[in-house]
Amino acid sequence: MILADKIIALRKKEGLSQEELADKLGVSRQSVSKWEMAQSTPDLNRILKMSELFGVSTDYLLKEDAELPEPAPTEEQPETVPPLTHVSLKEANDFLRSNQRHAFLVALGVALCIVSVTPPLCLDLFSPAIANLSVVFLFLFIAAAVGLFIFSGISMKRFDYLSEHCIDTEYGIDGMVKEKKKRYQPRHTVMLIVGVMLCILSVVPPIVCSSLVSSAFTDRLGAVLLFVLIAAGVFLLVNTGIIMSGFHILLEEEGFSREEKQNAARMKPVSAAYWLIITALYLGYSFITWSWERSWIIWPVAAVCFPVVILIAKAIRNKAAK
Predict the structure, then answer these.
(1) Distance CA 179, CA 144 (A)
(2) pLDDT digits (tens, 9 = 90+) for 276-318
(3) How far apart are CA 32 and CA 16, in angstroms?
(4) Burial class of residue 236, CB neighbours in 10 A (0-12, 13-18, 19+)
(5) Can you say how many angstroms the Cα of residue 319 is from the centroid of all Cα atoms in its chain?
(6) Does the domain made of 3-62 have the CATH classification 1.10.443.10?
(7) What is the gyration radius of the CA atoms in the chain, in angstroms?
């Protein structure tokens, strides 16, 4: 085995990316990449540092016929560093393109869920026969939203490993992703501001409509405009949030660091149970009271409470582990 192959094998065994190894050796990532592609060789000082870092002899590194000695058997050898999954430049670009489409479809589905309450609000003004059709339109909106969620989820399934596993990105990916993130940041900021403003201003139409001409028609019109503005604001927030999270996933930052990924894997059953309970509460309350125009508030409240639930679950888990 030549030196280039030994560096690759030892680096992956230690769970280090090229950039992390470069930081430990005081060189650039390009240098490590060239070593691993056998385009150049490290100097003696770097050889000595790698010998200490990987716990091998310099003979093993420099001699092609030298074999790595087997570690002494121990009673328990816990794996402290998770294995890294290699990500190529093509995979990274495919993920970013697919994530943009995924962001649009999910945001559209959420917006459809919000505006699904508008047909009952509008059609209730007409005859009972027409009013009964409002339920049909409500479920058509919800069915379309669920279809978008399922289709988008299936199309992104092949990229689950990026957010669940610790990754080792190919040379050039970090720089490419950081550049795209930098270019997208101004648009992200604008979408966040506009989305939040639309949600805040959504209360204005009901107030204006009831103040100018108070009637059943104007009251319903104000309520419809409220939900439309909320849907538009939430669409922008969800869309840009998912797109930005795609950059964070590839860069392993924010909520997608390696430590967070390991914690998320442990909390996955808690998360699944939590959202199943919330869904059951939403559907149960909505069908019992038939107050679809109010029951949607369960979702933003649940989203705010979710981090608290996860913190409590982590605290209980840590206490039980001691």
Answers:
(1) 35
(2) 888 888 878 877 887 766 776 787 787 778 777 777 877 776 6
(3) 12
(4) buried
(5) 28
(6) no
(7) 27
Q: Judge if pTM exceeds 0.85.
A: no
Cα dihedral sign, 222-226-229-231? negative
Measured CA to CA, the distance from residue 61 to residue 229 in angstroms comes to 64
> What tokens does 201 get?
């201003």
The per-residue pLDDT of the chain, averaged, comes to 80
Residue type, 222: G
Residue matched to tokens 């190919």: 170
Nearest alpha carbon to residue 165 among 267, 264, 18:
264
What string of H, E and C letters represents the secondary structure of 139-202? HHHHHHHHHHHHHHHHHHHHHHHHHHCEEEECCCHHHHHHHHHHHHHHHHHHHHHHHHHHHHHC
Locate the domains of the chain by residue range.
3-62, 88-256, 257-322
Q: What b/e readout covers 199-213, taking b as 16+ CB neighbours within 10 angstroms?
A: beebeebbeebeeee
pLDDT tens digit sequence for 171-195:
778 888 889 999 999 999 999 999 9
From CA 169, how far away is CA 172, in angstroms rounded? 8
Residue 39: closest CA among 72, 3, 74: 3
Give me 253's structure tokens.
């930052």
The first and second tokens of residue 237, run together, are 């927030």
Phi, psi of 167 (to 5 degrees): -120, 155
